[in-house]
Predict the 3D structure of the following.
Amino acid sequence: MRKNFGAKPFLYPQPVMILGTYDENGKANAMNAAWGGIVGANEIIVDLSAHKTTDNIIKNKAFTVGVADLEHLVACDYVGIVSANKEADKMQKAGFTTTKGEFVNAPIINELPLTLECELVKVIDGSKYLAEIKNVSADEKYLGDDGEIDLSKFTPITYDPVHHGYYRLGERVGNAFKDGAKLK
């Protein structure tokens, strides 16, 4: 027997995305966003209510998406519960430093392992920010011997929208586009 929950945002894993933007004075800001994801080979969408970050996105037509990881869980949660409108030293208190993105006018959070640089395409229904991914970068310490991102070198976290918890992603359990071939 199955239990119905109605229309809820219950999809697992739910990425924990740290959005980086610049304000009107060029000051870096970050916020934690849980509702969004990849919607095409080079597109991402994030659903946000009104925030300093959304004002910054509209102003600059750009943002970064840093992948929250276990090592920085506390800082990543902090930037989601504290508004830059109320805390001027939000980034410093989080322990985040930034570098200007090479491909868009938005900050890369140096402490996070993986960053997507995104250019705003359009806002849909007033809250859904569709963007084109202009570049993906990763700290070299998270690359494998093949020069590609190695998920075994960092631990992304996922959000549980039911119990409001964070969970680490687990170990490799299979091979995409291969294991299913056993049923052919």
